[in-house]
From TrEMBL:
Catalyzes the NADPH-dependent reduction of N-acetyl-5-glutamyl phosphate to yield N-acetyl-L-glutamate 5-semialdehyde. GO terms for biological process: L-arginine biosynthetic process. The gene is argC. It comes from the Bacteria. This is N-acetyl-gamma-glutamyl-phosphate reductase. It is an enzyme of class 1 (oxidoreductase). It catalyses: N-acetyl-L-glutamate 5-semialdehyde + phosphate + NADP(+) = N-acetyl-L-glutamyl 5-phosphate + NADPH + H(+). SUPFAM superfamilies: Glyceraldehyde-3-phosphate dehydrogenase-like, C-terminal domain, NAD(P)-binding Rossmann-fold domains.
Length: 349
């Protein structure tokens, strides 16, 4: 018999929420039963999310944990960090399986979490969270009731780096990570930083020199896979496009390691992972090749003059970087083929 999974989206009125709705509506095993908002609760869905007009009727609901628990087996939470943890706690207390897209449960060391986020609303619950990157944590996800879905920059960065650290190909020392994101990565709420006239036709870095909160998240996962303490120099940039992240890392590799070896190791590492495509050595992935898809494109090149390997990862921040990855985790959790409902190629060009 086909499995039916009833799903709620909490934070449905934001960008990751809208993307979750798009993906869940196309998933053969999912019935989307509840759409929850905050300031937009009570408004017609078609007004708040015009892309769902004529597809989803009714109103955006206010959060009510009991109502969600009676109508959904799983909840996807696309809420600001800090606001998410108390809501997740209420849902977990009622047995709802939660895929949390915020940063509230990603950091395993809660002292590090407090250092970067200034609070910790649910330290006990955090112990049960599994980092939601199937390519690294597939087995743990099969039984996880709380999944901490990774951030967008971490996804684009960790995927190309993980195979190299797993195989011990990287020399000691920090890795330089230079990443560029589309503006939807900042969410739907208007801000000066993302105002059209201050964003379009320009290109700048932000939160440089160890100031961005994705730094410890990337370090956590790379250190874990490499079984050693890894530090990164992380420079995020905002580029005038709506979707997409390109993360470019520079690292020194052990003598004799070249791009062909990195490529071969990555292909072996991602064997059986439907969302990751490893290009031939030297390719330059484009965010347009993944836009709207749950795919990550990865590639390696060696700069023979300096001995640096350049590792690139391209994703759609809203899909593999957020909502698609959450759904991929749900598939793993429910024993479905990992790519169910996620097979669509990019909307290219
Ligand atoms: N955008 C991206 O590319 C990615 C985002 N993320 C993370 O996912 C989460 C959601 O991001 P995104 O969709 O972009 O954000 P948006 O700002 O687009 O949406 C936020 C959502 O949360 C609701 N909300 C806002 N404040 C509160 C509150 N205090 N209590 C309850 N609900 C609230 C809003 O409801 P209403 O509109 O009704 O007020 C809205 O539905 C964030 O933690 C973000 O960092 C992770 C990976 C990538
Ligand atoms: C362009 C832009 O502003 N991006 C966001 C990252 C979005 C994201 O993935 O953040 P979470 O860790 O909250 O999930 C930022 O730099 O804060």
């Amino acid at each position: 018999m086909t499995k039916r999974i009833r799903a709620a989206i909490v934070g449905a009125t934001g960008y990751t929420g809208a993307e979750l709705a798009r993906l869940l509506l196309g998933h053969p095993n999912v019935e989307l039963t509840v759409l929850v908002g905050a300031s937009k609760a009570g408004q017609p869905v078609e007004r708040v999310l015009p892309s769902l007009a004529g597809i989803v009727r009714g109103e955006v609901e206010a959060f009510d944990a009991d109502r969600i628990a009676s109508r959904a087996d799983v909840a996807f939470c696309g809420l600001p960090h800090g606001a998410s943890a108390p809501i997740v706690k209420e849902l977990r207390a009622r047995g709802v399986i939660v895929f949390d897209l915020s940063a509230d449960f990603r950091l395993v060391d809660r002292a590090v979490h407090r250092e970067w986020y200034g609070d910790d609303h649910a330290p006990e619950l955090a112990k049960s969270a599994v980092y939601g990157m199937p390519e690294l944590h597939r087995d743990a996800l099969r039984t996880a009731d709380l999944v901490a879905v990774p951030g967008c920059y971490p996804t684009a960065t960790i995927l190309p780096l993980a195979p190299l650290f797993a195989k011990g190909l990287v020399e000691e020392g920090p890795v330089i990570v230079d990443a560029k994101s589309g503006v939807s990565g900042a969410g739907r709420a208007p801000s000066e930083r993302t105002h059209f006239s201050e964003t379009t036709e320009g290109f700048r870095a932000y939160k440089i020199a160890g100031a961005h909160r994705h730094t410890p998240e990337i370090e956590q996962e790379i250190s874990r896979v490499g079984a050693r303490d890894v530090r990164i120099v992380f420079t995020p940039h905002l580029v005038p496009m709506t979707r997409g992240i390109l993360s470019t890392s520079y690292l020194r590799v052990k003598p004799g390691v070249d791009a062909a070896r990195c490529t071969a190791e990555a292909r072996a590492f991602f064997e059986g992972s439907p969302s990751v495509f490893v290009h031939d050595a030297g390719a330059c992935p484009d965010t347009l090749w993944v836009r709207g898809s749950n795919r990550a494109h990865v590639s390696y090149a060696l700069d023979a003059r300096t001995g640096f390997v350049i590792a690139q990862g391209a994703i759609d921040n809203l899909v593999k970087g957020a909502s698609g990855q959450a759904l991929q985790c749900m598939n793993v959790r429910f024993g479905l083929p990992e790519g169910t409902g996620l097979a669509m190629p990019a909307a290219w060009p």
